[in-house]
Amino acid sequence: MRKILLTMGGGFLLATAGAQQPATRSQAKIEAGPGGTGFGYEAKLASRFTIDVNTGIGGNYEIADDRFYYVFASSKYETPALCLGINPRFYYNSAKRASKGRNTSLNAASYIDIKAKLVAPFDTDYYTGASLINVHWGMQHNIGRKWLQNTHAGLGYAVAEVQYSTIYYNNEGSYTTVRHPSPGFFYPSLDIRFAYVLSKKIRNEAR
After folding, report:
1. How do strand 175-180 and strand 164-169 relate by DSSP bridges?
2. Among 64, 58, 47, 52, which Cα is nearest to 134's?
3. How far apart are CA 77 and CA 123, in angstroms?
4. Contact yes or no for 71/104 (Cβ under 8 A)
5. Facing residues of 61 across strands?
6. Cβ atoms within 10 Å of 117's Cβ, excluding its own
7. Are 66 and 163 in contact (CB under 8 A)?
8. Biggest alpha carbon distance in the chain?
9. Confidence band for 123, pLDDT divided at 50, 70 and 90
10. Where is the signal peptide (predicted)?
11. % pLDDT > 90, the chain
12. Which of 35, 51, 52, 199 is deepest in the core (most CB within 10 A)?
């Protein structure tokens, strides 16, 4: 039984190693979408792994005990927020796309990723900062030689950066302050983003 398992395991490793996996690439980009605009850099870690880091300006998150929603900074009454996102990404179908003769340049493939995002509002009198963690399934498609469309959907969890306090006064004029835990919410995460790739070397990796 042990020999059979070792033989099967060795065969699986050989098959995996022998499969033609189009390599990912590092690329800088300017991005824009409903979540804001900014600069991103997707760094290659391995054949199918990258880490995508992006920063820019977007909307705020309204997080309180009874509500959670995204506030678009689209009018003079709403100030934007600074955003920083970091997400490791695994492209799982690059070889399948290549085997069908589809273009895989600019890391065009389907992926699974985890994203951590920090939001710091300009208007600190009304909005609080937020920390978010998301798990996504997504698709990245190249448009021509320099453009990308990135769409993802998944589940996220957001928590406010500050705690809330309640002051209770007694009949003697003194008071007690009770600090409440920062509110947190699960939410569906959906986004679409377009990017212009700044990197100079563009390879057509279609097989």
Report:
1. antiparallel
2. 52
3. 11
4. no
5. 70
6. 21
7. no
8. 81
9. confident
10. 1-19
11. 48
12. 52
Task: Look up tokens 């928590």; give the residue.
Answer: 159
C-alpha–C-alpha distance, residues 196 and 28, integer Å:
9
Residue entry with tokens 């059979």: 4
